[in-house]
Amino acid sequence: MSLRERWDGLPAGVRARAVSDARDRIPVPSADVREAWAGLPAPAVDHDAPWPQPLLSQYGRYWRDGNRTGYEGPAAALRDRAATAVLAAAVTGDLRDLDAAADGLQLLCEQSTWCWAAHETFAAERGHVVPDPDRPYLDLGAAETAGLLAWADLVLAPALDRRVPGLRERVRWEVRRRVLRPFREVRDWHWLGLDGHQHNWNPWIHGHVLAATLFLDPDPAVVDLVVDGLDRYLAAQPADGGCDEGYGYWWNGPARLAEALQLLDWSTGGLLAPWTIPPLAEMSRYPRHTDLGGGWAVNVGDGPARPDPAQPWHVLHRWGAACGAADVVGYAVSRKGRPGGAGLGRALVELHDPAWRAAVPAPAPLPERSWLPDVQLLVCRAPGIALAVKGGHNDENHNHNDAGSYVVAVGGVPAVIDLGQPTYTAISFTERRYEQWVTRSEWHNLPVIGGAGQEPGHAFRATDVRADGDALHLDLSRAYPPEAGCRSWRRTARLDRARGAVVVSDDWDPAVPAVLHHVLSGEPVTHRAGELVMRFRSPVRLSWDPALGAGHLERHPVDDPLLRGVWGDAVHRLVIAATATFELTVTSGDP
Fold first, then answer.
1. pTM of the predicted protein model
2. Which of 101, 256, 497, 574 is a Cys-bridge partner for 86, taking CB atoms 3.0 to 4.6 Å apart?
3. What is the 3-state secondary structure (H, E, C) of 228-241?
4. Extended strands (E) in 13-170
5. How far apart are CA 107 and CA 26, in angstroms?
6. Which residues is 448 bridged to in the sheet?
7. Which of 9-13, 205-209, 352-356, 462-466 is least confident?
8. At what angle do helices 254-267 and 201-216 cross, to 10 degrees?
9. Which among 466, 518, 516 has a CA at the least distance from the CA of 494?
């Protein structure tokens, strides 16, 4: 039974009360926040620091020089400070904190737009940089702001009415104008997925819209549209629970879906009970499947190899418990840290989750092997070494041209690497996307065949993909353009548990000239014919047929702040020319 069918199957009175009485059914009563936070340091608000003020000059940079972060940074800082002040006011009851919270909420209401410049198309269609307040664009930024205002109202309503009468009415007016009305009246937003293309915007925006209507402006028609949107997203998810957007976006895609479903379930008093709908249980396992250990993750597409550890693990814990997935529950608890991060709504829900608060962190073993056949991702782990290899195609969400590429981690740290997400700019989601070096196949662990790299598009893909225990077999020829002249490129990547090694073997048409690229973290220690030792966190040895020589080792400076924060000041690329066959072995570099 689908989500839509479950919702429609509830008695009409249950659905009506789910909307009208939701505020009373969400387990985040403001009076309990102080008790929930007992024993923890209170959220700190710097009352003397000036408030972040996003400026038009920063907004306009997107069109002038392609910079997104110049505006998105201050806009996020304003939301974050407002959220911290709201949480502090709820925890401390201090009037200075309450005034700061009110200031933050009012400043958000006074912004000309909640939309991020990179998403604002209505003004851009007219050749304008200044957004039109009469035609708000509903994007992630607008949804995030509406969600923050909704949770703030839920937790501070009585205090705000006493201290700043009228502010809550202003908040409701702004959310109706900028979010709820456009959501209800404009039904061709690209993120609705009406064309069948689903990505993280769908549950991310729908979840915030749901909170906004339930807490600020109850409207059964809006909730019904939210159910439609979430149903489309859930129906499009692969049966294996994989996420083609990768680990980083999983938290703002599938995890956002789980949070929205939780809100719906709470609002119905638990009668919706969506957790047995396939493939929700498998979706909850994705972070565990892609964990390399030591705080590193398999980062296909746009994703950091070393993600922020301060994720809302309580979301995964609650999700696993609802699905009866003990492995997910144990994994989430093993990652438990200090509460209060990752957004106001998430922080408040975390504080009011007694099962999560009582959970005691303990180590949780990672699976020896994870095979996700729909997204064609194999992850194998042995003591001290792990392999992740993907098939797939080059039109995945947040795609890099990486069909057939692989990652090797030694001691839990990637050594043969996927660079991951660069800082987004104006070209990141345009036809110029593959001008970025990190998105091209030449900067993945892939061959250049006949002088050509892989091409973007659904037709460019791995074929004949087959998992066999700790090995993935695939043909890469279809990922390259016809001019590469490649009829067959057979690759096998396998974890040899007995040797504690990863072995990658390639076999292709000997008439086609080819060079194999290997992107590496760290700095070289030893480099000679048939061997390269690199050191990042620990030494890693790559070995191949010495008759092929030493290859060419290139050093590439990393000037992107996101990438530098993961890999340091430089990465290296080992390029080796070969004919017909090549085999690379990766082991620990320790004696």
1. 0.96
2. 101
3. HHHHHHHHCCCCCC
4. none
5. 27
6. 515
7. 352-356
8. 30
9. 466
Q: Are 580 and 505 a contacting pair, CB within 8 Å?
A: no
Number of neighbours of residue 335 by Cβ within 10 angstroms: 18
DSSP conformation class of 178: I
Q: Is the bond into 510 cis (omega within 30 degrees of 0)? A: no
Contact 394, 454 (CB under 8 A): yes
CA distance 384 to 408: 11
Structure tokens at 381: 């782990």
Q: CB within 8 A of 505, min separation 6: which ones?
A: 491, 492, 493, 581, 582, 583
DSSP 80-101: HHHHHHHHHHHHH--HHHHHHH
Instruction: Give the Cα separation of 246 and 199 in Å (integer).
Output: 11
Scan for tokens 């180590």, then name that residue. 363
DSSP, res 429: T
- Whose structure tokens read 């923890």? 40
Condensed to tens digits (0 to 9), the pLDDT of residues 536-568 reads: 988 999 999 999 999 999 999 999 999 999 999
Predicted local confidence at residue 340, as pLDDT: 56
Alpha-carbon gap, residue 474 to 471, rounded angstroms: 10
Give the C-alpha distances (Å, rounded to integers) separating 65 from 3, 56, 338, 451, 564. 44, 14, 39, 32, 22
Q: Which residue has the tokens 């430089």?
A: 570
Which residues are bridge partners to 501 per DSSP? Answer: 496
**What are 55-78's pLDDT values in tens digits?**
999 999 999 999 999 999 999 999
Structure-token pair, residue 188? 């061709």
Using only C-alpha atoms, what is the Rg of the chain? 25
- 3-class secondary-structure state, position 508: strand
pLDDT in tens, 381-431: 999 999 999 999 999 999 999 999 999 999 999 999 999 999 999 888 889
* Residue 258 near residue 250, CB atoms below 8 Å: no
Mean per-residue pLDDT for 69-89?
95
